[in-house]
Structures are given as C-alpha cells and as structure tokens.
Amino acid sequence: MKNYILVVVMLLTIQCINAQSNIDKDVNTSAINLVIVNDNGDILLKKATIGWITIGAFYEKRHTINEVIDSISNKYGVSITKPNLKGVFTYKFDFNNAVSIRQVYVAKSTTNDLPTNKNVEFRWAPKDEAIEKFKSTIPSLGEMIAQIIDYPQVVWGGSFLIKKENNKKTSMITEDFYPISDASTYRESSNDPAVVKALQKYMEGSSYNKREMLLSAFTDNATLYLTNRDGDFKRYSPSEYADFFKNAEKGKFNGRDAKILEITVTKDIATAKVEIAGPDRAWVYIDLFLLKKIKNDWRIISKTATRVDK
What is the pLDDT of residues 195-211, one digit of tens each? Predict the structure, then answer.
C-alpha cells in the first residue's frame, strides 16, 4: 500500500512539473488594445499592476474579433461606438521565443462616463498626459498610441523588441512605423478620385518606367525641386525627371513601391504626401506634391522629396 501511494505521489509530482513546464513554454499570442476617447479628446486609462494601460484582452480559442471587443465592453461596463482598426504591431521578446501580435482599435465613448466596473480604477487624461503615462508603463504602448492618434487617417504597422530588466519591461523599435493602408481612403477631403488618379499616374509611371504616363501626371511647366545623386539641389522639368526612367524596360517593375499617405483638397488646389520605398525598404523617400485643378483635370504643378530611412 505504501509503495502504491508513493507511486501515485510520484505521478502527481511529474504531472505538476509537466504542467508548469507547459506554462513556461514560449506561446505566441494575439491581443486587442482598445483606445477609447471622449468628446473632449481625452483618452481612457486603466490602472494595472504594471502601471496605466488601455483596456484590452487576449484572444481565446474560437473567439472572433467582434467577440473579443464585446467581451472587453461587457467586462468593464463601457459603452462605445464601433471601433476602427488603426494599427497592427508585432512584439518580440528577449526573454523567450514567442511573438505577440497587437491589434489597436480606436472607439468613441458614447456617454463620456467612466466605465462602470468598480473593481478597476479608471480615469480620463488629455492626450499628451495619457501618452506619457503609457510610455512610463512600457514605451512601446505610448509610442503606438501616439502614432495612431497623431495620424488617424492611416492604419499603421511596426515592430518592437520587449526586454525585461529587474522585473520592469522596456522596449525598442525594431521596424519603424509604416502605413499598411491607403491613407486617401480615410479622409473625406481626398474623395475626389481625379486627385488620386493624378497621383496614380505618377506612381505607376515611375514604378513601371512608363514615361508618357509619368509626364501626363504633370503640367508642362511643373517644377520639381530635388537633390541629385551628387548631393546638389536642383530644379527639374517634368521631361528631365521622366528621362531618369527612359533607359529602363517599359512596363517592368523597377522596385519602387509607392503608397499615398495623405491628401488634402481645398477647392481647386491640393497637397499630397506619397511614400516611395525600394526593395526591402533599403531606401525610403517622402514625396510632397502640389496639385491644381485645370479645366476639370487635376495635375501636379510642383514636387519635392526627402530621404527618410537614414
């Protein structure tokens, strides 16, 4: 009987050890952070053991995105409008081999009241104060939220390395923030498809060596102010700029990945920001455009650019 009890105790001990080892295993996770703002532009803060954070939750088995968001609302007793996705970020860790994907949504409070869950401390804070409190908890949290609040027309991506030092977590950016959406679809002022069409002529013409298409995006007397390969700041005509692509194979992708970041239209003038990135983002430029509506046709009248990857 004693031997039997000893065997049972040993088996239970082994099971406990195995269970603990499973807990300690590196496990990939997905989580939702829900940023809630009120009519004053204040951001909701939740007090946690590690500091001030947003409300959120990890995905559980068989949960959809809407189910996770509903569970957050129900858990904390918060009434919100339909959340909008504003960022998808990757966390890697220096203390395990797991990866965590963080989806960040923004929603408006429908009541401007604090959540009804009395077991959790909440408060509203102005944007700058909220960002600083998030950063003091873990820098990546504040940096992500600052990016999506400052540039709400874009869905952002980015990656962080999370470190643990003396039981406190720190972070560093391993991939700079980059848009994973076409910003023009998020701005009412950019709804004029003719503005987008003019930019698309520029982007397709320069990315696929289509000289005639590229020229059609500009007025004949447009001015381009650019720094050449020798480091000289010069003024170019559209024809001179298009000649940069004349010896490349027409219609063949040359590695220039172009994305519209921002468009603002005021009556018959518009400004636009476009990102141009090389293969594997070996180089990245931001192009700024000034456009004019001429006889119901939008054309680029000026352009400049700067390299930002450095």
Answer: 888 998 999 899 999 99
116-125, 165-174, 284-293: least confidently modelled range: 165-174
Within this chain, do residues 241 and 114 fall inside the same structural domain, yes or no? Answer: no
Distance between CA atoms of residues 83 and 75, nearest Å: 16
Kindly list the strands in the beta sheet with 297-307, ordered across the sheet, starting from the edge strand earlier in the chain.
233-236, 218-227, 297-307, 284-294, 269-277, 257-266
pLDDT level of residue 8 (50, 70, 90 thresholds):
very low
Question: Alpha-carbon distance 182 to 263, whole Å?
Answer: 10
Number of residues assigned to the chain:
310
CA–CA gap between residue 258 and residue 182 (Å, rounded): 10
Quote the domain boundaries for residue 44.
26-179
Residue 199 shares a structural domain with residue 81:
no
- Whether residue 33 is found in the same domain as residue 172: yes
Residues 160, 206, single domain; the answer is no
Average pLDDT of the chain is 86
User: Which structure tokens are listed for 172?
Assistant: 């560093």
What CATH number is given to the structural domain containing 163? 3.90.79.10
According to the model, what pLDDT value does residue 168 have? 78
Q: Using the 3D structure, point to which of 116, 144, 179 is the last residue of a domain.
A: 179
- Neighbouring C-beta atoms of residue 83, cutoff 10 Å: 21
Q: What is the mean pLDDT of residues 29-37?
A: 94
Question: What does the pLDDT look like over 68-81, one tens digit per residue?
Answer: 998 898 899 998 98
DSSP output for 226-270: EE-TTS-EEEE-HHHHHGGGTTSPTTS--S-EEEEEEEEEETTEE
Total number of domains constituting the chain: 2
- Whether residues 62 and 122 fall in one domain: yes
SS3 54: coil
Q: Whole-model pTM?
A: 0.54
